[in-house]
Amino acid sequence: MDTDIFIGLVFLVLLSVILCLFYIILSRKKSGKCFGDYSQFKSIGKGGMATIYCAKNKILKRIVVVKVMDSGLMKDKDLVYKFLKEGENLQRINERFPDSPVVKVLEYSHPSSTGPYFIAMEYLSGINLLQAIKSGNIPSLKGQIFILKEVARALHASHSLGILHRDISPDNIIINQNKVTLIDFGIAKQEFSEYRTLHGALVGKPFYMSPEHSAGKMVDDKTDIYSLGAIWFYMLERRPIYDSPNIIDILKMHQECPIPEITASIPQDIMLFIRQMLHKTPSARPDAREVVSRMEYFLSREDLN
């Protein structure tokens, strides 16, 4: 074989090996496998700013969830702050109210670090409420009340610290037998303020947005209560409180349309309480503590057994 051809073949082989190694290293970095205490990463979801992984914590020797901020956003300090705020909010709630049904945070990056930025949380088995509803496994009225009571307990804890969830929806409620957990405080606010993102766009899920939220107005803790009422309506009627192919129309319906009639066969006082939760005026809605109290009362009643 000609010497030049042989050298050329060797060069191509070495180049191929180098490219393969580079690809493997790059893939590991993208999947977050470079984290010191975490390994065996497996992508399980994608959010607006982050990819969500299942991973094994080598110190705790258990599976956890790690939310990793997209590398393309890490240079934006405002977005980094917003992303890591979820970890800070969860830590505050967990420390002050350790028994509240709010997902537990394990650790999160410090804003001054160079990245990658991440939030590590407990892994929750079970399914979310949206999956349960869509699969036809809609809880009984008593089961619905129990779920809503637990979410209201979580909201009472966060609201007591001035933290609004702002994205109460069935897919953020995890159910595992008799355990209910509220997750995803990614767009939570630590103060009562205008419900907008950094770039002025509304955030949240239109089916469950309060009138003030959908109008882009100032919001307080009652915005979460309206969303909870919209979830209850969905469970009872098997449909969203307002629906349209056009998202803008849905937002306007929350603001302008009367509360639809509830056709499900439920006690009158429960129906009236749902309508109170869905009141267009925030101050007319109950707070989270009152929701918990009323749910406990409903669960104690013999006519629901």
Characterize the structure shown.
This protein is of the alpha+beta class. The chain starts with a helix and ends in a 5-residue tail after the last helix. The strands form two sheets. It has a five-stranded antiparallel β-sheet with strand order 1-2-3-5-4, covered by helices on one side. Strands 6-7-8 form a three-stranded antiparallel β-sheet. Strand 2 (50-57) and strand 3 form a beta hairpin. The longest helix is centred in the N-terminal third of the chain and has 28 residues, at 3-30. It has nine helices and eight strands.
Key attributes of the depicted protein:
305 residues, 5-stranded antiparallel sheet, 3-stranded antiparallel sheet, elongated
Query: What form results from the Cα inertia axes?
Result: elongated
Q: How many extended strands? A: 8
- In terms of structural class, how would the helical and strand content be classed? alpha+beta
- Oligomeric category: single chain
Query: Taking all residues together, what is the mean pLDDT?
Result: 85
Low-confidence stretches: 24-32, 189-203
Strand order of the largest sheet: 1-2-3-5-4
Please describe the biggest sheet, giving its number of strands, its sense, and whether it closes into a barrel: 5 strands, antiparallel
The proportion of residues forming helix, as a percent range, comes to 40-55%
Order of helices and strands: HEEEHEEEHHEEHHHHH
Strand fraction: 5-15%
Number of helices: 9
Radius of gyration: 23 Å
Distance between the termini: 88 Å
